[in-house]
Write a structure and sequence with these properties.
Structural class: mainly beta
Distance between the termini: 8 Å
Largest sheet: 5 strands, antiparallel
Helix content: under 10%
Number of domains: 1
Length: 142
């Protein structure tokens, strides 16, 4: 059964009576050391058994350096089918110069390396916090 209300919240009830409430959220990335891929491990609030799907996504961020505007995107991925209450989301970083939407190097699997490759003046503090978060939602079988 799916219900839709004016607040755009979608609630799903599966055959076990588990609703989506509590099975969606965001998780913050702690950038990995150089030469290690960035990833976020998420533990669900309670065990829901097996055979569920996790969908992940991220947000775009903007960095301005020397009057040039750069858009940073994280392409987040996670295992399609998860059989535990824990999953890991991985990310590949892409940077585009806004004028002309031109790709700038990369892609990178490490945010620290992205900053080092872009310019010695770039730091993790330049990257907006929203870009360093993964949005996730569990899709349960119905």
């Amino acid at each position: 059964m799916k219900l839709y209300d004016a607040s755009s919240d979608i609630w799903e009830l599966d055959y076990r009576g588990i609703t989506r409430s509590g099975f969606e959220g965001t998780a913050a990335l702690t950038p990995a050391a150089l030469d290690n891929p960035d990833e976020v491990t998420v533990t669900l609030p309670r065990n829901i058994g097996s055979d569920f799907v996790v969908v992940v996504s991220g947000k775009r961020g903007t960095v301005t350096k020397n009057s040039t505007i750069y858009d940073i995107y994280g392409s987040w991925t996670a295992s399609i089918f998860v059989a535990a209450s824990v999953f890991t989301a991985n990310v590949i970083w892409h940077v585009f110069e806004r004028t002309g939407n031109v790709s700038v190097g990369g892609p990178w699997n490490n945010l620290r390396q992205l900053c080092a490759d872009m310019d010695p003046t770039w730091s993790l503090d330049d990257i907006p916090d929203g870009v360093k978060r993964v949005c996730w939602i569990v899709r349960l079988p119905l």
